[in-house]
Design goal:
This protein is an alpha+beta fold and about 750 residues long. The protein folds into 3 domains: about 260 residues, alpha-galactosidase from lactobacil brevis (Beta-galactosidase, Chain A, domain 5, Distorted Sandwich), CATH 2.70.98.60; about 300 residues, TIM Barrel, CATH 3.20.20; about 110 residues, Immunoglobulin-like, CATH 2.60.40. Helix content is about 20%, strand content about 30%. It contains 13 helices and 39 strands. Helix 6 packs parallel to helix 8 and helix 10 runs parallel beside helix 11. The longest helix is centred in the last third of the chain and has 23 residues. The chain is globular, with a radius of gyration of 27 Å. It starts with a strand and ends with a strand. Bound molecules: (2R,3S,4R,5S)-2-(hydroxymethyl)piperidine-3,4,5-triol (DGJ). (2R,3S,4R,5S)-2-(hydroxymethyl)piperidine-3,4,5-triol (DGJ) binds next to loops.
Length: about 750
């Protein structure tokens, strides 16, 4: 049984073959944290690990007892107003203004499987044997308010999921803060790993040592954001990609979030994660409930790669859903960087024809097909085709594309409106802003108030009509601005504190309705590139546009960072034009593909302008991707050398049975008189012999090596030129890359 309850000691031990998560009930009835980490042999009493000790001026719960202070006890879900001065996991206010609480253990239930969270994305199980869940009910006896802490442990993963549900029984309560989970750790010898950035340089890896005080990342932008990702990891200082201890925490949510590590002045670390409390105020009437989003905790003693591999497998197979979850993803052409807003049917068909010639499978029509949208100033909200550009509508275009042998996909941005639109003219109060004041635009657009059901219903009607009208196989769902001054017009005060969370629930609801009615459509989420690349979105859209930055060199870092949490099957990655449209950098066509292969793969450039030789290479590229995409999208990914620390970097993906692998090496600048370089591979079978074959360029290395040679001695990537003499071939110069396939000879 993965969840063990020791009646006598009132201790809970959640364990599988790899991990243990242990907590008990403290003398005041609250759950106190005992241990999370590598599996421990079960015993009746781990109570000795709970440290009671007198510390300066601590508020103590029991008269005459100077060592029971919540300020210095490790807890499961600490409250504000109970003697603990650290950042609380929750805070609530009763009708009389009191914020004092006293939640005590009432009962618990242990059952096989895992329940879904109403209206929210969550990790799931396919059969009950995969996991076991503990529901721990706590009650504040004075008010009857209950709180259920949910814990699920998976049989096959070193994963614990957590969330909390508040149930208001007798009186009204206002939740001021409701985190998804908390983890009090016994020391502070960690480094915090986060994914930070900005538009076009999302999810760069940042590492900082923990210090006294709070170190946090967050979003108050209404989306998970370009700036920070709802993920953080605490790793030991000697942990690297391949070995050492790390705890990764992810939030299955797409809106405002807070993720932080607080180190108190006695060297205890508190990790918490949840909806950002700043703009959150949830009033509950008697009988109502509030469910927090889910927090996913991963423990690894196999370094950051070990942590990432668990996230990948869990998110790819037990968070992503639907028909496309396990399918190889189609190679697409997107017309955005090929045409921007400037297109008509004939131009698109020419592009599609070329795409078909090179082996593309899906044609995606991006922004600009509706209303009178010829630039970014108008028509969001008016989801009617522009017949001037596309006479005969989407149906005619989609059918012509289908006749060429390609599927047809479409871009939408359902959550937004331009002032220059019929929708805005009819419903100016549907924007998420106090319309009596001046309010900010961003990219000339405004956020629709998805906290109102009528708005979601209206947009649902519009999008549904389009999807019924034409044979649409794929949708790119964009979201191109952050929230600024949020106000839900015409709604009461109580609604305002709920509006931001209800907005996200509205987005999830719209996704859910469309998925139910159109289960065959492949959804790709997008938010100005990668501003909503989060686990919440993955529940609805199994892939996401990783970044608007399509430059191959920038993408090495972006995809490397994204891979800390998200599987390759979720990363939209395209070959685009050179010079690149964001960075203006010229990169070789083979390097652009060598980066883009490690994702869902596609093209985003004007193929009608491409030279025959380029088209020939692209044809080879699509053939290569079709042959290897199963391995890429379902294999085990290893980061081998970081682009954040070196001029050269490397990664590889290995099939689960270890018979196939692909290795990629990237070197940004050509060094003069380059040093010799060997990279040690990972994940192979040491005893098997592999055929190693260069896949970039017309000729290259081919040889046979045992797994042990490749993993322990390494693969030589040394430059063959002297720095003075350029040797023929692709493996020199700036922005160079190499791609090698490995197949076992058994
Ligand atoms: C932002 C997206 O990230 C781009 O790929 C493109 O779809 C534009 N929006 C269109 O407006």
């Amino acid at each position: 049984m993965p969840v063990i309850f020791h009646e006598k000691t009132k201790e809970f031990h959640l364990c599988n073959g790899e991990i243990s998560y242990i907590f008990g009930i403290l003398a005041n009835g609250q759950p106190g944290h005992i241990y999370y980490g590598k599996r421990l042999t079960d015993r009746e009493d781990f109570g000795y690990m709970t440290e009671y000790a007198m510390r300066d001026m601590a508020p103590c719960a029991f008269e005459g007892n100077t060592s029971f202070s919540l300020e210095h006890l490790k807890q499961e879900y600490p409250a504000y107003g109970s003697g603990d001065m650290r950042f609380p996991a929750f805070e609530l206010e009763y009708e009389n203004g009191s914020r004092t609480v006293d939640f005590q253990y009432k009962e618990h239930a242990i059952y096989k499987g895992k329940k879904g969270l109403e209206g929210l994305p969550a990790v799931y199980v396919e059969n009950e044997e995969e996991a076991e869940t503990l529901e721990l009910t706590l009650e504040d006896p004075l008010t009857g308010v209950q709180m259920i802490l949910f814990y699920t442990i998976f049989e096959e993963y070193p994963v614990i999921t957590r969330s909390t549900c508040f149930c208001c029984k007798k009186e009204r309560v206002t939740l001021l803060n409701a985190m998804s989970g908390c983890l009090d750790l016994p020391d502070k010898d960690y480094e915090m790993v986060e994914l930070a950035g900005a538009w076009s340089r999302e999810r760069h890896v940042k590492v900082r040592g923990l210090e006294y005080g709070i170190q946090s990342i967050y979003s108050l932008r209404g989306c998970s954001s370009h700036q920070f990702n709802p993920f953080l990891a605490l790793k030991r200082t000697n942990t690297d990609e391949h070995s050492g201890e790390v705890i990764g925490a992810g939030l299955v949510y797409s809106g405002d979030f807070l993720a932080q590590a607080e180190v108190d002045n006695f060297d205890v670390t508190r990790l918490i994660m949840g909806i950002h409390p700043n703009e959150f105020r949830w009033e509950m009437e008697a009988g109502e409930k509030f469910q927090t989003p889910e927090m996913v905790l991963v423990y690894s003693e196999n370094g950051l790669n070990g942590m990432s591999q668990v996230f990948h497998r869990l998110y790819r197979t037990r968070l992503a859903r639907g028909k496309w979850r396990d399918r190889e993803r189609p190679i697409l052409i997107n017309n955005w960087e090929a045409t921007y807003f400037d297109f008509h049917e004939e131009k698109l068909l020419k592009l599609a024809e070329k795409a078909r010639e090179i082996g593309v499978e899906l044609f995606v029509l991006d922004d600009g097909w509706f209303g009178k949208r010829n630039d970014a100033t108008s028509s969001l909200g008016d989801w009617r085709v522009n017949e001037e550009k596309l006479p005969g509508g989407l149906k005619r275009l989609a059918e012509k594309i289908n006749a060429l042998g390609l599927d047809f996909g479409l871009w939408i941005e359902p959550e937004m409106v331009n002032k220059d639109s019929d929708l805005y003219r009819a419903h100016p109060d549907w924007v998420f802003a106090d319309i009596r004041r001046n309010y900010c635009h961003s990219r000339n657009q405004y956020v629709l108030d998805f906290s109102k059901k009528e708005v979601v219903d209206y947009i649902h009607g519009q999008i549904r009509k389009i999807l019924k009208e034409a044979p649409i196989a794929y949708i790119k769902w964009d979201m191109n601005r952050s929230f600024s001054e949020v106000f839900s017009n015409g709604m009461d005060r109580a609604h305002q504190g709920k509006a931001r969370h209800q907005y996200i629930l509205g987005v999830y609801d719209l996704y859910e309705r469309l998925l139910r009615e159109f289960p065959d459509i492949l959804f790709e989420s997008c938010a100005s590139g990668g501003a909503r690349f989060d686990p919440g979105m993955l529940y609805y859209a199994p892939q996401a546009w990783t970044s608007d930055d399509t430059d191959a060199v920038e993408r090495i870092k972006i995809q490397y960072g994204t891979s800390y949490v998200y599987p390759l099957s979720s990363m939209g990655s395209h070959v685009s034009a050179s010079p690149n449209h964001q960075i203006f950098r010229d990169t070789p066509i083979y390097t652009r593909a060598n980066v883009a292969y490690f994702g869902t793969f596609g093209y985003e450039l004007d193929l009608t302008e491409a030279a025959e030789e380029e088209l020939r290479i692209m044809r080879q590229q699509t053939e290569f991707m079709k042959k290897h995409r199963k391995l890429i999208q379902k294999g085990i990914f290893y980061r081998l050398k970081s682009p954040f620390e070196h001029n050269s970097s490397a990664w590889m993906v290995v099939s689960e049975d270890r018979r196939e692998a692909l290795f990629a090496y990237f070197r940004v600048l050509q060094p003069p008189q380059a040093g010799f370089e060997r990279i040690r591979l990972s994940g192979l079978n040491a005893e098997w012999k592999y055929r190693v074959k260069e896949e970039t360029g017309e000729s290259g290395y081919e040889g046979e090596h045992y797994g042990d040679e490749l993993m322990y001695a390494g693969l030589s990537l040394s430059d063959q030129s002297s720095g003075l003499v350029k040797i023929a071939g692709d493996h020199q110069g700036d922005y160079m890359s190499r791609l090698l396939s490995l197949s076992a000879i058994i």
